[in-house]
Design goal:
The protein is α/β, with parallel strands linked by helices. The protein has five helices and seven strands, in the order ββααβββαβαβα. 40% of the residues lie in helices and 19% in strands. The protein has a five-stranded mixed β-sheet with strand order 5-4-3-6-7. It has a two-stranded antiparallel sheet with strand order 1-2.
């Protein structure tokens, strides 16, 4: 803090804010350095609406794997009923033939399904060779 003495009005004190600004700039630099630059999270892939050429869409539908989780905990792979113990081996068999970049599956849950069923299915899917798990919602199915 600086102080001026003398003059017409007597003693005046002027606060010296330069050290305060230096401290604030150092704190800003420290917080910028410790802040992560890229957020970590779950990578999800959502299917796109159907393109105009229908023949290509039929080929994609034949290769698309959708795991459905019902409210009671039952499972389906593309309309075929499976049990929890069959899910892993069936997905292993399907994705063993595919190229590494083509190992994508989607998961769809009923409206009132418990989250632990969906999380368990995603865990089994990723351990069975699925590289990307997409979340299939009602709006995505309708093409919105």
């Amino acid at each position: 803090m600086a102080m001026q003495v003398g003059g017409k009005k007597g003693a005046m004190s002027d606060p010296n804010v330069v050290p305060l600004i230096d401290v604030l700039l150092v704190l800003i630099i420290i917080f910028m350095a410790i802040t992560p630059t890229t957020p970590k999270g779950l990578h999800a892939q959502v299917p796109l609406p159907a393109p105009p050429n229908q023949k290509q869409q039929q080929q994609l539908n034949n290769r698309t794997i959708v795991v459905q989780v019902a409210q009671d905990g039952s499972l389906k792979i593309n309309q075929d009923s499976v049990t929890w113990t069959q899910l892993g081996p069936k997905l292993d068999a399907v994705f063993k033939e595919r190229a590494p970049g083509d190992r994508v599956a989607f998961i769809k849950g009923d409206k009132n399904v418990q989250f632990d069923y969906v999380a368990r299915a995603i865990d089994i899917m990723t351990s069975s060779g699925v590289e990307k798990v997409g979340l299939l919602t009602k709006k995505v199915e309708e093409g919105q």
